[in-house]
Design brief:
Elements lengths: L1 H21 L5 H7 L2 H21 L10
């Protein structure tokens, strides 16, 4: 169970990074509908936390608000 969930989460994350964030060949709504909602919530929280950490380390916490 844990291995399959890990694989599913990894697939959802890679799909988001490659198809939604970078190449934009898939819109975010399609990505959300393609995967289990709990996985989507978890990955979204991970990405948000990563972005916050990046901004704090760069000492530009308000830069993301301008985007």
């Amino acid at each position: 169970m844990i291995a399959s969930l890990k694989t599913y989460m990894y697939e959802a994350l890679v799909t988001y990074v490659q198809k939604v964030d970078i190449s934009q060949e898939m819109i975010r709504d399609e990505w959300i509908k393609s995967f289990n909602s709990q996985c989507i919530v978890t990955i979204t929280q991970l990405l948000w936390t990563k972005e916050c950490e990046t901004r704090i380390v760069d000492k530009k916490p308000y830069a993301a608000l301008d985007e």
